[in-house]
Amino acid sequence: MTKDNTLTIDGAVVAIEGERNLLELARKANIDIPTFCYHSDLSVYGACRLCLVDVAGRGVVASCSTPPEPGLVVRTHTPQIREIRKVAIELLLANHEHACPTCPKSRSCQLQDVARRLGVSEVRFKPALKNSPVDDSSPSLVRDPNKCILCGDCVRMCHDVQSVGAIDFAHRGADVAVVPAFGRNLDDVECVHCGQCARVCPTGALTPANDIDDVWAVLDDPAKVVVAQIAPAVRVALGEMFGQPAGAVQTGKIVVHTDI
Ligand code: SF4
Ligand code: SF4
């Protein structure tokens, strides 16, 4: 490491090794900066404003869209930045349905997680929820606009990575929303049901459809012989979920049990 290619984050000297932005550099140094809209495999959007950091001599900047430069002195959790993040979360919560116990994302919701970590215990802003209808037209996904925080992750995933473009931003100002093309239901557009938008959605705004009640109904039907078939990708996806190397095949190790 030479002095010429380093910068300082929260007092730690960190080498710049091709990282695209300060957020990636901070992650490399195991410094956690919250963000909803940054994914290394998606384009930089800079919408959520949670990843702000203080750069000496420059002030507060978004770390996701600030390239690392030698000599920078960066602080990631100053009192000012913590307060800005708290206000951002409160504004999101003022527009967000508060039905966490019944939300499918309840235990994996990033909004819930960041709010808890920042110690947000009240929302000082007037609720502005529009009570939009839930779109459950798709066989694979449920779209609940009342939980959307407009991070744009799903839009970029669908357009940039999946090359489909089934969902996009519509309208302006306070009316801006993420919707399927032409404001239709998801089942009426060219969605290919890949589920990648739900995978990156940080809240319960896009979630996989839940068919568990239908499964129980056939399991409880004595007149039916039930045969289960899983999608091919599950063989490797389950392995990754349990810490196996990417691509490790789990055939013969998958057991379905219904004791719940
Ligand atoms: S399921 Fe796939 S194709 Fe459909 S909206 Fe989501 S990312 Fe796009
Ligand atoms: S649906 Fe989810 S991923 Fe898409 S903009 Fe809303 S919160 Fe973000």
Descriptive account of the structure:
The chain has 260 residues and is α+β, with helices and mostly antiparallel strands. The chain folds into three domains: 3-77, Ubiquitin-like (UB roll) (Roll); 84-208, Alpha-Beta Plaits; 217-260, no CATH class. Helices cover 23% and strands 13% of the residues. It has helices at residues 22-28, 79-94, 110-117, 153-161, 196-200, 212-219, 234-241, and strands spanning 6-9, 12-15, 52-55, 59-62, 73-75, 141-143, 167-170, 177-180, 206-208. The strands form three sheets. Strands 2-1-5-3-4 form a five-stranded mixed beta sheet, with helices on one face. Strands 6-9 form a two-stranded antiparallel ribbon. Strand 3 and strand 4 form a beta hairpin. The longest helix has 16 residues, at 79-94. The N and C termini lie far apart (54 Å). The structure holds iron/sulfur cluster (2 copies). Residues 141, 157-158, 162, 164, 166-167, 191-197 line the site of one iron/sulfur cluster (SF4).
Secondary structure topology:
Elements: E1 6-9, E2 12-15, H1 22-28, E3 52-55, E4 59-62, E5 73-75, H2 79-94, H3 110-117, E6 141-143, H4 153-161, E7 167-170, E8 177-180, H5 196-200, E9 206-208, H6 212-219, H7 234-241
Parallel strand pairs: 1-5
Antiparallel strand pairs: 1-2, 3-4, 3-5, 6-9, 7-8
The site of one iron/sulfur cluster has 14 residues, from helix 4.
The tally of structural domains comes to 3
Overall CATH architecture of the largest domain: 2-Layer Sandwich
Number of strands: 9
Instruction: Note the total helix count.
Output: 7
